[in-house]
Design goal:
Chain B: It comes from Jimgerdemannia flammicorona. The complex is a heterodimer. By secondary structure, chain A is an alpha/beta fold. Helices cover 38% and strands 14% of the residues of chain A. Chain A starts with 12 loop residues before the first helix and ends with a helix. Chain B has a single domain, classed as Potassium Channel Kv1.1, Chain A (2-Layer Sandwich). Chain B is built from eight helices and three strands; from the N terminus they run ββαβααααααα. Classes of the chains: A alpha/beta, B mainly alpha. At the A-B interface, helix 1, helix 2, helix 3, helix 5 and strand 1 of A face helix 4, helix 5, helix 6, helix 7 and helix 8 of B.
Chain lengths: 414, 164
Protein backbone atom coordinates (compact mmCIF):
# COMPACT_ATOMS: atom_id res chain seq x y z
CA UNK A 1 0.00 0.00 0.00
CA UNK A 2 1.20 3.47 -0.78
CA UNK A 3 1.68 5.92 2.02
CA UNK A 4 -0.59 8.90 1.97
CA UNK A 5 1.12 11.93 0.57
CA UNK A 6 -1.53 14.49 1.30
CA UNK A 7 -2.21 15.45 4.84
CA UNK A 8 -5.70 16.73 4.20
CA UNK A 9 -8.84 14.70 4.55
CA UNK A 10 -9.08 14.11 0.84
CA UNK A 11 -8.37 11.16 -1.33
CA UNK A 12 -4.62 10.76 -1.52
CA UNK A 13 -2.96 11.09 -4.89
CA UNK A 14 -2.06 7.43 -5.17
CA UNK A 15 -5.68 6.37 -4.69
CA UNK A 16 -6.79 8.91 -7.28
CA UNK A 17 -4.16 7.62 -9.69
CA UNK A 18 -5.45 4.10 -9.13
CA UNK A 19 -9.01 5.30 -9.80
CA UNK A 20 -7.85 7.01 -12.99
CA UNK A 21 -6.16 3.83 -14.09
CA UNK A 22 -9.42 1.96 -13.63
CA UNK A 23 -11.41 4.71 -15.34
CA UNK A 24 -9.10 4.60 -18.33
CA UNK A 25 -9.86 0.92 -18.79
CA UNK A 26 -13.59 1.65 -19.02
CA UNK A 27 -15.68 3.22 -21.77
CA UNK A 28 -14.28 6.47 -23.08
CA UNK A 29 -10.84 5.95 -21.67
CA UNK A 30 -8.80 9.08 -21.94
CA UNK A 31 -11.72 11.48 -22.15
CA UNK A 32 -13.00 10.31 -18.81
CA UNK A 33 -9.54 10.95 -17.43
CA UNK A 34 -9.75 14.49 -18.77
CA UNK A 35 -13.08 14.92 -17.02
CA UNK A 36 -11.48 13.71 -13.81
CA UNK A 37 -8.63 16.19 -14.27
CA UNK A 38 -11.08 19.06 -14.17
CA UNK A 39 -12.90 18.09 -11.00
CA UNK A 40 -10.68 19.81 -8.50
CA UNK A 41 -7.09 20.81 -7.94
CA UNK A 42 -6.21 17.60 -6.13
CA UNK A 43 -7.64 15.62 -8.95
CA UNK A 44 -5.71 17.71 -11.42
CA UNK A 45 -2.50 16.97 -9.54
CA UNK A 46 -3.28 13.30 -9.67
CA UNK A 47 -3.99 13.67 -13.38
CA UNK A 48 -0.61 15.30 -13.96
CA UNK A 49 1.13 12.43 -12.25
CA UNK A 50 -1.04 9.89 -14.01
CA UNK A 51 -0.38 11.16 -17.52
CA UNK A 52 3.28 11.69 -16.83
CA UNK A 53 3.73 8.18 -15.58
CA UNK A 54 1.66 6.59 -18.30
CA UNK A 55 3.36 8.34 -21.18
CA UNK A 56 0.24 10.29 -22.14
CA UNK A 57 -0.01 13.83 -23.38
CA UNK A 58 -0.98 16.38 -20.76
CA UNK A 59 -2.91 18.53 -23.18
CA UNK A 60 -4.03 16.53 -26.19
CA UNK A 61 -4.98 18.46 -29.31
CA UNK A 62 -8.63 18.72 -28.36
CA UNK A 63 -7.99 19.38 -24.69
CA UNK A 64 -9.53 22.83 -24.78
CA UNK A 65 -12.71 21.59 -26.40
CA UNK A 66 -13.26 19.50 -23.34
CA UNK A 67 -12.14 22.14 -20.98
CA UNK A 68 -14.43 25.17 -20.53
CA UNK A 69 -12.68 28.18 -19.09
CA UNK A 70 -14.58 28.26 -15.83
CA UNK A 71 -13.79 24.59 -15.24
CA UNK A 72 -10.15 25.09 -16.08
CA UNK A 73 -9.82 28.03 -13.71
CA UNK A 74 -11.01 25.76 -10.93
CA UNK A 75 -8.01 23.50 -11.23
CA UNK A 76 -5.42 25.83 -12.68
CA UNK A 77 -5.36 28.28 -9.83
CA UNK A 78 -2.37 27.59 -7.66
CA UNK A 79 -1.77 24.26 -9.31
CA UNK A 80 1.42 22.46 -8.65
CA UNK A 81 3.96 21.76 -11.27
CA UNK A 82 4.73 18.23 -12.22
CA UNK A 83 8.24 18.57 -10.84
CA UNK A 84 6.89 19.40 -7.42
CA UNK A 85 4.51 16.48 -7.49
CA UNK A 86 7.24 14.07 -8.46
CA UNK A 87 9.48 15.47 -5.83
CA UNK A 88 6.76 14.98 -3.23
CA UNK A 89 6.06 11.51 -4.49
CA UNK A 90 9.69 10.51 -4.24
CA UNK A 91 10.04 12.04 -0.83
CA UNK A 92 7.37 9.67 0.38
CA UNK A 93 8.75 6.76 -1.60
CA UNK A 94 5.67 6.50 -3.73
CA UNK A 95 6.58 4.16 -6.49
CA UNK A 96 5.57 5.73 -9.77
CA UNK A 97 6.34 3.79 -12.90
CA UNK A 98 7.68 6.40 -15.25
CA UNK A 99 7.22 6.19 -18.96
CA UNK A 100 8.14 9.64 -20.11
CA UNK A 101 11.08 9.71 -22.45
CA UNK A 102 11.60 13.36 -23.20
CA UNK A 103 13.64 15.82 -21.26
CA UNK A 104 14.00 19.51 -21.92
CA UNK A 105 16.68 21.33 -20.03
CA UNK A 106 17.15 25.03 -19.98
CA UNK A 107 20.69 25.23 -18.73
CA UNK A 108 20.44 28.81 -17.67
CA UNK A 109 17.60 27.91 -15.40
CA UNK A 110 19.20 24.79 -14.07
CA UNK A 111 22.24 26.68 -13.03
CA UNK A 112 20.14 29.49 -11.73
CA UNK A 113 18.25 26.93 -9.68
CA UNK A 114 21.45 25.39 -8.43
CA UNK A 115 22.82 28.71 -7.37
CA UNK A 116 19.44 29.90 -6.20
CA UNK A 117 19.70 32.95 -8.35
CA UNK A 118 16.63 35.00 -8.92
CA UNK A 119 16.19 35.42 -12.61
CA UNK A 120 13.82 37.80 -14.22
CA UNK A 121 11.43 35.84 -16.30
CA UNK A 122 10.25 37.06 -19.67
CA UNK A 123 6.93 35.28 -19.69
CA UNK A 124 5.55 37.76 -17.28
CA UNK A 125 2.09 38.67 -16.23
CA UNK A 126 0.66 41.93 -17.36
CA UNK A 127 0.07 44.54 -14.77
CA UNK A 128 -1.28 48.08 -14.93
CA UNK A 129 2.01 49.63 -15.85
CA UNK A 130 2.93 47.18 -18.55
CA UNK A 131 4.84 44.00 -17.93
CA UNK A 132 5.33 42.83 -14.44
CA UNK A 133 8.35 40.67 -13.88
CA UNK A 134 8.03 37.54 -11.86
CA UNK A 135 10.80 35.66 -10.16
CA UNK A 136 11.19 32.11 -11.27
CA UNK A 137 13.12 29.00 -10.69
CA UNK A 138 14.74 29.37 -7.37
CA UNK A 139 14.02 25.70 -7.02
CA UNK A 140 16.60 23.57 -5.28
CA UNK A 141 18.52 21.48 -7.73
CA UNK A 142 17.66 18.23 -5.99
CA UNK A 143 14.12 18.51 -7.28
CA UNK A 144 15.45 18.53 -10.78
CA UNK A 145 17.67 15.60 -9.92
CA UNK A 146 14.60 13.70 -8.77
CA UNK A 147 12.90 14.64 -11.98
CA UNK A 148 15.67 13.30 -14.18
CA UNK A 149 16.11 10.18 -12.13
CA UNK A 150 12.50 9.36 -12.81
CA UNK A 151 13.17 9.20 -16.51
CA UNK A 152 15.04 5.97 -16.64
CA UNK A 153 15.92 6.11 -20.31
CA UNK A 154 15.73 9.47 -21.95
CA UNK A 155 15.07 9.16 -25.67
CA UNK A 156 14.85 12.82 -26.48
CA UNK A 157 17.06 15.45 -24.94
CA UNK A 158 16.64 19.15 -25.59
CA UNK A 159 19.24 21.51 -24.24
CA UNK A 160 18.75 25.24 -24.47
CA UNK A 161 21.97 27.18 -24.30
CA UNK A 162 20.69 30.62 -25.01
CA UNK A 163 22.21 33.19 -22.72
CA UNK A 164 24.65 30.74 -21.19
CA UNK A 165 28.36 31.36 -21.02
CA UNK A 166 30.90 28.51 -21.30
CA UNK A 167 31.54 28.50 -17.60
CA UNK A 168 27.88 28.02 -16.82
CA UNK A 169 27.67 25.41 -19.54
CA UNK A 170 30.44 23.49 -17.85
CA UNK A 171 28.75 23.79 -14.52
CA UNK A 172 25.54 22.44 -15.96
CA UNK A 173 27.49 19.71 -17.71
CA UNK A 174 28.90 18.65 -14.35
CA UNK A 175 25.37 18.35 -13.12
CA UNK A 176 24.30 16.33 -16.16
CA UNK A 177 27.34 14.08 -15.98
CA UNK A 178 25.79 12.09 -13.17
CA UNK A 179 22.89 11.16 -15.47
CA UNK A 180 24.91 9.99 -18.47
CA UNK A 181 23.62 6.48 -17.92
CA UNK A 182 20.07 7.82 -18.33
CA UNK A 183 20.98 9.03 -21.80
CA UNK A 184 22.11 5.72 -23.23
CA UNK A 185 18.99 5.22 -25.31
CA UNK A 186 19.01 8.74 -26.66
CA UNK A 187 17.55 8.94 -30.16
CA UNK A 188 17.05 12.64 -30.61
CA UNK A 189 19.24 15.42 -29.36
CA UNK A 190 18.48 19.10 -29.80
CA UNK A 191 20.90 21.76 -28.73
CA UNK A 192 19.78 25.30 -29.43
CA UNK A 193 21.13 28.72 -28.82
CA UNK A 194 24.66 30.02 -28.92
CA UNK A 195 26.85 30.18 -25.90
CA UNK A 196 27.70 33.72 -24.99
CA UNK A 197 30.99 34.42 -26.68
CA UNK A 198 31.12 30.99 -28.25
CA UNK A 199 33.07 28.00 -27.06
CA UNK A 200 36.69 29.00 -26.35
CA UNK A 201 38.81 27.52 -29.11
CA UNK A 202 41.96 27.25 -27.05
CA UNK A 203 40.63 25.49 -24.05
CA UNK A 204 41.60 22.21 -22.49
CA UNK A 205 38.04 21.51 -21.46
CA UNK A 206 36.16 18.78 -23.27
CA UNK A 207 33.09 20.17 -24.91
CA UNK A 208 30.14 18.89 -22.84
CA UNK A 209 28.22 18.01 -25.98
CA UNK A 210 31.08 15.76 -27.01
CA UNK A 211 30.70 13.94 -23.76
CA UNK A 212 26.99 13.38 -24.24
CA UNK A 213 27.47 12.36 -27.86
CA UNK A 214 30.28 9.96 -27.07
CA UNK A 215 27.97 8.01 -24.85
CA UNK A 216 25.14 7.84 -27.31
CA UNK A 217 26.47 7.40 -30.77
CA UNK A 218 24.82 4.07 -31.43
CA UNK A 219 21.17 5.01 -31.19
CA UNK A 220 21.16 8.62 -32.24
CA UNK A 221 18.79 9.16 -35.17
CA UNK A 222 17.98 12.84 -35.16
CA UNK A 223 20.20 15.73 -34.37
CA UNK A 224 19.39 19.39 -34.22
CA UNK A 225 22.20 21.83 -33.59
CA UNK A 226 20.60 25.20 -34.13
CA UNK A 227 22.92 28.16 -33.74
CA UNK A 228 25.32 25.80 -32.14
CA UNK A 229 29.03 26.45 -32.02
CA UNK A 230 31.02 23.32 -31.63
CA UNK A 231 34.64 22.40 -31.88
CA UNK A 232 36.75 19.62 -33.36
CA UNK A 233 35.82 17.13 -30.69
CA UNK A 234 32.12 17.63 -31.38
CA UNK A 235 32.74 17.07 -35.08
CA UNK A 236 34.63 13.89 -34.32
CA UNK A 237 31.89 12.66 -32.03
CA UNK A 238 29.31 13.41 -34.70
CA UNK A 239 31.20 11.30 -37.20
CA UNK A 240 30.57 8.27 -35.07
CA UNK A 241 26.81 8.77 -35.11
CA UNK A 242 26.32 6.74 -38.24
CA UNK A 243 22.59 6.16 -37.84
CA UNK A 244 21.56 9.78 -38.11
CA UNK A 245 18.81 10.24 -40.65
CA UNK A 246 17.69 13.77 -39.89
CA UNK A 247 20.11 16.57 -39.25
CA UNK A 248 19.29 20.19 -38.66
CA UNK A 249 22.36 22.35 -38.69
CA UNK A 250 20.51 25.62 -38.78
CA UNK A 251 22.89 28.51 -38.54
CA UNK A 252 25.65 26.04 -37.97
CA UNK A 253 28.76 28.03 -37.42
CA UNK A 254 31.79 26.17 -38.53
CA UNK A 255 33.99 29.20 -38.46
CA UNK A 256 35.23 30.83 -35.36
CA UNK A 257 36.14 34.26 -36.60
CA UNK A 258 34.40 36.44 -39.08
CA UNK A 259 37.55 37.82 -40.62
CA UNK A 260 38.44 34.52 -42.20
CA UNK A 261 34.88 33.89 -43.25
CA UNK A 262 35.34 33.33 -46.90
CA UNK A 263 39.03 33.04 -47.38
CA UNK A 264 40.47 29.81 -48.66
CA UNK A 265 41.28 28.86 -45.13
CA UNK A 266 37.73 29.62 -44.09
CA UNK A 267 36.26 27.44 -46.80
CA UNK A 268 38.63 24.67 -45.90
CA UNK A 269 37.57 24.82 -42.30
CA UNK A 270 33.95 24.88 -43.28
CA UNK A 271 34.43 21.86 -45.46
CA UNK A 272 36.20 20.12 -42.63
CA UNK A 273 33.43 21.04 -40.30
CA UNK A 274 30.69 19.42 -42.26
CA UNK A 275 32.65 16.26 -42.67
CA UNK A 276 30.40 14.48 -40.19
CA UNK A 277 27.84 14.26 -42.98
CA UNK A 278 30.22 12.08 -44.92
CA UNK A 279 29.81 9.55 -42.17
CA UNK A 280 26.03 9.58 -42.15
CA UNK A 281 25.06 7.14 -44.89
CA UNK A 282 21.46 7.06 -43.68
CA UNK A 283 20.95 10.78 -43.87
CA UNK A 284 17.59 11.64 -45.45
CA UNK A 285 17.01 15.20 -44.38
CA UNK A 286 19.54 17.94 -44.00
CA UNK A 287 18.63 21.42 -42.93
CA UNK A 288 21.55 23.67 -43.62
CA UNK A 289 19.81 27.01 -43.54
CA UNK A 290 21.62 30.12 -42.44
CA UNK A 291 24.92 28.37 -42.49
CA UNK A 292 27.65 29.59 -44.77
CA UNK A 293 27.03 29.21 -48.46
CA UNK A 294 27.97 25.65 -49.18
CA UNK A 295 30.43 25.45 -52.04
CA UNK A 296 30.26 23.09 -54.93
CA UNK A 297 32.62 20.51 -53.39
CA UNK A 298 30.54 20.52 -50.22
CA UNK A 299 27.27 19.90 -52.05
CA UNK A 300 28.89 17.36 -54.27
CA UNK A 301 30.46 15.57 -51.38
CA UNK A 302 27.20 15.63 -49.52
CA UNK A 303 25.17 13.93 -52.20
CA UNK A 304 27.78 11.32 -52.92
CA UNK A 305 28.21 10.42 -49.23
CA UNK A 306 24.51 10.34 -48.45
CA UNK A 307 22.81 8.20 -51.10
CA UNK A 308 19.45 8.34 -49.31
CA UNK A 309 19.29 12.11 -49.06
CA UNK A 310 15.82 13.26 -50.10
CA UNK A 311 15.31 16.58 -48.46
CA UNK A 312 17.74 19.43 -48.50
CA UNK A 313 17.10 22.80 -46.97
CA UNK A 314 19.52 25.52 -47.85
CA UNK A 315 19.16 29.14 -47.06
CA UNK A 316 20.78 32.49 -47.33
CA UNK A 317 24.21 32.38 -45.83
CA UNK A 318 25.42 35.29 -43.87
CA UNK A 319 28.73 35.29 -45.61
CA UNK A 320 30.16 34.02 -48.80
CA UNK A 321 30.11 34.57 -52.48
CA UNK A 322 26.56 34.48 -53.75
CA UNK A 323 27.51 34.15 -57.38
CA UNK A 324 29.72 31.22 -56.72
CA UNK A 325 27.05 29.65 -54.65
CA UNK A 326 24.48 29.92 -57.40
CA UNK A 327 26.97 28.36 -59.76
CA UNK A 328 27.47 25.48 -57.32
CA UNK A 329 23.78 25.12 -56.83
CA UNK A 330 23.09 25.01 -60.53
CA UNK A 331 25.62 22.22 -60.98
CA UNK A 332 24.22 20.45 -57.99
CA UNK A 333 20.64 20.59 -59.21
CA UNK A 334 21.50 19.42 -62.70
CA UNK A 335 23.56 16.55 -61.34
CA UNK A 336 21.46 15.43 -58.42
CA UNK A 337 18.06 17.05 -58.70
CA UNK A 338 16.61 13.76 -59.83
CA UNK A 339 17.09 12.35 -56.38
CA UNK A 340 16.14 15.21 -54.14
CA UNK A 341 12.44 15.17 -53.34
CA UNK A 342 12.26 18.31 -51.32
CA UNK A 343 14.50 21.25 -51.95
CA UNK A 344 14.03 24.29 -49.78
CA UNK A 345 15.59 27.42 -51.16
CA UNK A 346 13.60 29.94 -49.18
CA UNK A 347 15.40 33.24 -49.22
CA UNK A 348 17.90 31.99 -51.74
CA UNK A 349 15.99 31.49 -54.89
CA UNK A 350 15.34 34.84 -56.42
CA UNK A 351 11.79 34.78 -57.67
CA UNK A 352 8.86 36.98 -56.92
CA UNK A 353 6.97 34.79 -54.50
CA UNK A 354 6.80 31.44 -52.79
CA UNK A 355 5.79 28.53 -54.92
CA UNK A 356 5.18 24.96 -54.24
CA UNK A 357 5.55 22.57 -57.11
CA UNK A 358 4.01 19.36 -55.97
CA UNK A 359 4.53 17.47 -59.16
CA UNK A 360 6.99 18.80 -61.59
CA UNK A 361 6.08 17.91 -65.13
CA UNK A 362 2.40 17.58 -64.28
CA UNK A 363 -0.17 20.12 -63.30
CA UNK A 364 0.87 22.76 -60.86
CA UNK A 365 -1.03 22.19 -57.65
CA UNK A 366 -1.89 25.59 -56.37
CA UNK A 367 -1.87 25.90 -52.67
CA UNK A 368 -3.72 28.61 -50.82
CA UNK A 369 -0.73 30.85 -50.91
CA UNK A 370 -0.27 30.51 -54.63
CA UNK A 371 -3.96 31.22 -55.13
CA UNK A 372 -3.33 34.72 -53.93
CA UNK A 373 -0.99 35.33 -56.82
CA UNK A 374 -2.78 33.78 -59.76
CA UNK A 375 -1.19 35.99 -62.34
CA UNK A 376 2.42 35.11 -62.13
CA UNK A 377 2.82 31.70 -60.56
CA UNK A 378 2.06 29.78 -63.70
CA UNK A 379 4.66 31.71 -65.56
CA UNK A 380 7.30 31.08 -62.94
CA UNK A 381 6.34 27.45 -62.63
CA UNK A 382 6.51 27.00 -66.35
CA UNK A 383 9.93 28.53 -66.41
CA UNK A 384 11.05 26.12 -63.75
CA UNK A 385 9.60 23.15 -65.52
CA UNK A 386 11.00 24.07 -68.88
CA UNK A 387 14.24 25.49 -67.71
CA UNK A 388 15.39 22.92 -65.21
CA UNK A 389 15.58 19.41 -66.55
CA UNK A 390 17.27 18.40 -63.33
CA UNK A 391 14.14 19.03 -61.30
CA UNK A 392 12.18 16.10 -62.61
CA UNK A 393 11.95 14.37 -59.25
CA UNK A 394 11.59 17.40 -57.07
CA UNK A 395 8.13 17.18 -55.61
CA UNK A 396 8.29 20.06 -53.26
CA UNK A 397 10.24 23.15 -54.03
CA UNK A 398 10.14 26.13 -51.78
CA UNK A 399 11.29 29.44 -53.06
CA UNK A 400 10.57 32.88 -51.83
CA UNK A 401 10.89 36.42 -52.97
CA UNK A 402 14.32 37.77 -53.57
CA UNK A 403 16.22 39.46 -56.25
CA UNK A 404 15.67 38.18 -59.71
CA UNK A 405 19.33 37.96 -60.55
CA UNK A 406 19.89 34.36 -59.63
CA UNK A 407 16.73 33.14 -61.27
CA UNK A 408 17.59 34.82 -64.48
CA UNK A 409 21.11 33.51 -64.47
CA UNK A 410 19.75 30.04 -63.87
CA UNK A 411 17.14 30.41 -66.55
CA UNK A 412 19.51 31.87 -69.09
CA UNK A 413 21.76 28.87 -68.84
CA UNK A 414 19.18 26.38 -69.94
CA UNK B 1 -2.78 -5.03 28.60
CA UNK B 2 -5.31 -5.72 25.92
CA UNK B 3 -6.52 -9.16 25.02
CA UNK B 4 -4.29 -10.39 22.15
CA UNK B 5 -7.22 -12.19 20.57
CA UNK B 6 -9.28 -8.99 20.36
CA UNK B 7 -8.48 -5.48 19.39
CA UNK B 8 -10.24 -2.28 20.40
CA UNK B 9 -10.51 0.56 17.92
CA UNK B 10 -11.48 4.08 18.95
CA UNK B 11 -12.97 6.39 16.36
CA UNK B 12 -12.68 10.16 16.12
CA UNK B 13 -15.59 10.76 18.50
CA UNK B 14 -14.54 8.19 21.10
CA UNK B 15 -16.79 5.33 20.06
CA UNK B 16 -15.09 1.98 20.66
CA UNK B 17 -15.29 -1.20 18.66
CA UNK B 18 -13.83 -4.45 19.91
CA UNK B 19 -13.32 -7.10 17.26
CA UNK B 20 -11.20 -10.23 16.95
CA UNK B 21 -7.69 -9.36 15.77
CA UNK B 22 -8.03 -11.99 13.08
CA UNK B 23 -10.61 -9.83 11.31
CA UNK B 24 -8.00 -7.17 10.70
CA UNK B 25 -5.15 -9.33 9.46
CA UNK B 26 -5.36 -7.56 6.09
CA UNK B 27 -4.97 -4.11 7.62
CA UNK B 28 -1.34 -3.14 7.52
CA UNK B 29 -1.92 -0.24 9.86
CA UNK B 30 -3.39 -2.54 12.52
CA UNK B 31 -0.72 -5.17 12.03
CA UNK B 32 2.02 -2.58 12.41
CA UNK B 33 0.32 -1.21 15.49
CA UNK B 34 0.02 -4.68 17.02
CA UNK B 35 3.71 -5.27 16.48
CA UNK B 36 4.89 -2.00 17.91
CA UNK B 37 2.29 -0.91 20.41
CA UNK B 38 0.17 -4.01 20.96
CA UNK B 39 0.44 -3.65 24.70
CA UNK B 40 -1.68 -0.53 24.75
CA UNK B 41 -5.34 -0.54 25.55
CA UNK B 42 -6.89 0.64 22.33
CA UNK B 43 -5.90 1.83 18.91
CA UNK B 44 -7.06 5.25 17.86
CA UNK B 45 -8.39 5.57 14.37
CA UNK B 46 -8.66 9.27 13.83
CA UNK B 47 -10.48 10.76 10.84
CA UNK B 48 -12.85 7.77 10.69
CA UNK B 49 -16.47 8.05 11.79
CA UNK B 50 -18.15 5.23 13.73
CA UNK B 51 -20.50 4.50 10.84
CA UNK B 52 -17.68 4.10 8.38
CA UNK B 53 -15.55 2.07 10.77
CA UNK B 54 -18.48 -0.23 11.36
CA UNK B 55 -18.76 -0.74 7.61
CA UNK B 56 -15.06 -1.41 7.28
CA UNK B 57 -15.20 -3.93 10.11
CA UNK B 58 -18.14 -5.62 8.39
CA UNK B 59 -16.02 -5.96 5.27
CA UNK B 60 -13.17 -7.38 7.34
CA UNK B 61 -15.52 -9.84 9.02
CA UNK B 62 -16.89 -11.05 5.70
CA UNK B 63 -13.38 -11.59 4.38
CA UNK B 64 -11.79 -12.76 7.63
CA UNK B 65 -11.71 -16.35 6.55
CA UNK B 66 -10.57 -15.75 2.99
CA UNK B 67 -7.55 -17.87 2.29
CA UNK B 68 -6.21 -15.76 -0.55
CA UNK B 69 -2.86 -14.07 -0.11
CA UNK B 70 -3.29 -10.48 1.15
CA UNK B 71 -2.67 -7.91 -1.58
CA UNK B 72 0.48 -5.87 -1.29
CA UNK B 73 -0.88 -3.11 -3.46
CA UNK B 74 -4.39 -2.35 -4.73
CA UNK B 75 -2.96 -1.82 -8.20
CA UNK B 76 -1.27 -5.22 -8.27
CA UNK B 77 -1.58 -6.22 -11.95
CA UNK B 78 -0.92 -9.89 -11.26
CA UNK B 79 -4.17 -10.23 -9.36
CA UNK B 80 -7.05 -8.90 -11.43
CA UNK B 81 -10.10 -7.59 -9.64
CA UNK B 82 -12.99 -10.03 -9.33
CA UNK B 83 -16.38 -8.91 -8.09
CA UNK B 84 -17.46 -10.78 -4.98
CA UNK B 85 -21.23 -11.11 -4.36
CA UNK B 86 -20.59 -10.70 -0.63
CA UNK B 87 -19.51 -7.10 -1.31
CA UNK B 88 -22.75 -6.03 -2.98
CA UNK B 89 -23.66 -3.89 0.00
CA UNK B 90 -20.55 -1.78 -0.59
CA UNK B 91 -21.30 -1.37 -4.25
CA UNK B 92 -24.78 -0.06 -3.54
CA UNK B 93 -23.87 2.67 -1.06
CA UNK B 94 -24.35 6.41 -1.77
CA UNK B 95 -21.52 8.38 -3.36
CA UNK B 96 -20.44 10.32 -0.29
CA UNK B 97 -20.27 7.16 1.80
CA UNK B 98 -18.27 5.46 -0.89
CA UNK B 99 -15.76 8.29 -0.73
CA UNK B 100 -15.51 7.99 3.04
CA UNK B 101 -15.04 4.24 2.82
CA UNK B 102 -12.27 4.74 0.30
CA UNK B 103 -10.49 7.11 2.63
CA UNK B 104 -11.02 4.82 5.62
CA UNK B 105 -9.65 1.90 3.63
CA UNK B 106 -6.64 4.00 2.80
CA UNK B 107 -6.13 5.07 6.40
CA UNK B 108 -6.40 1.50 7.68
CA UNK B 109 -4.35 0.31 4.71
CA UNK B 110 -6.60 -2.49 3.53
CA UNK B 111 -5.68 -2.95 -0.17
CA UNK B 112 -8.64 -5.26 -0.87
CA UNK B 113 -11.12 -2.63 0.30
CA UNK B 114 -9.24 0.14 -1.52
CA UNK B 115 -9.47 -1.88 -4.68
CA UNK B 116 -13.17 -2.55 -4.20
CA UNK B 117 -14.08 1.08 -3.55
CA UNK B 118 -11.74 2.45 -6.24
CA UNK B 119 -13.29 0.07 -8.74
CA UNK B 120 -16.75 1.21 -7.74
CA UNK B 121 -15.77 4.89 -7.91
CA UNK B 122 -14.23 4.36 -11.36
CA UNK B 123 -17.39 2.73 -12.68
CA UNK B 124 -19.47 5.63 -11.34
CA UNK B 125 -17.12 8.22 -12.84
CA UNK B 126 -17.21 6.56 -16.25
CA UNK B 127 -18.96 8.81 -18.78
CA UNK B 128 -19.58 11.69 -16.36
CA UNK B 129 -18.66 15.33 -16.82
CA UNK B 130 -16.37 17.14 -14.38
CA UNK B 131 -19.35 18.87 -12.78
CA UNK B 132 -21.22 15.62 -12.34
CA UNK B 133 -18.20 14.00 -10.75
CA UNK B 134 -17.82 17.00 -8.54
CA UNK B 135 -21.44 16.76 -7.46
CA UNK B 136 -21.06 13.07 -6.75
CA UNK B 137 -17.91 13.10 -4.72
CA UNK B 138 -17.70 16.77 -3.78
CA UNK B 139 -13.98 17.09 -3.24
CA UNK B 140 -13.19 19.91 -0.87
CA UNK B 141 -13.14 23.36 -2.32
CA UNK B 142 -9.91 25.21 -2.47
CA UNK B 143 -8.78 26.41 0.89
CA UNK B 144 -7.06 29.77 0.98
CA UNK B 145 -3.82 28.45 2.37
CA UNK B 146 -3.57 25.87 -0.38
CA UNK B 147 -3.41 28.40 -3.16
CA UNK B 148 0.24 28.65 -4.05
CA UNK B 149 1.50 31.39 -6.25
CA UNK B 150 3.44 30.75 -9.41
CA UNK B 151 6.31 32.64 -7.85
CA UNK B 152 6.83 29.97 -5.28
CA UNK B 153 6.25 27.03 -7.49
CA UNK B 154 8.63 28.07 -10.26
CA UNK B 155 8.62 26.89 -13.81
CA UNK B 156 10.76 23.82 -14.04
CA UNK B 157 7.73 21.61 -14.14
CA UNK B 158 6.84 23.13 -17.42
CA UNK B 159 10.17 23.75 -19.01
CA UNK B 160 12.13 21.13 -17.24
CA UNK B 161 9.89 18.16 -17.52
CA UNK B 162 7.11 18.32 -19.95
CA UNK B 163 7.35 18.49 -23.65
CA UNK B 164 3.84 18.88 -24.75
Amino acid sequence: MFPTITNRCRLPLEILIEIFRLVEQLGNGYYDILACALVSRDWYHAYLLFVATHGLCIEPADFWEHCPEQVWSRVSQGRWRLANLLFEARRYNVDIPWKKEELTLNLRRIVAGARRYDLLHRRSRKSDNGLKKTLVNTRPVQELTALIQNIVSVKQLDIKLKGVDPEVFNEAADFLRQFLHNFRCLQTITITGPLIGGWPSETAMVHPVTEILNNNTTNLRKINLTEFIGDKTVTEALRRCTKIHTATLYEWDGLDKEDIAYTTEGILRLENNITPMRFWPNLRMLDFRHSKYPTSPILDDLVRSCPLLEELRLGPGVKGDEEEFHESLYNFVVAFGSRIKCLDLVGLWPVQMRLELRTVGGELAKDAFAEDFPRSDNGVAARYREGLPGFVAVQRLFVVEGESRGMESLYSRT
Amino acid sequence: MSDPANITLVTMDGTTFTVPSAYLHRSKLVQDWLRSEGDKQAMEVKHVTPFVLQGVLNFCEIHAEDTSEPLADPADPTKPFEADPRDDAFRGMPDDQLLQFTMAADILQIPELVRLTAQEMASRIDGKSPDQIRAMFNPDDLAEEDVDSDNEMGEVGEEGAISK
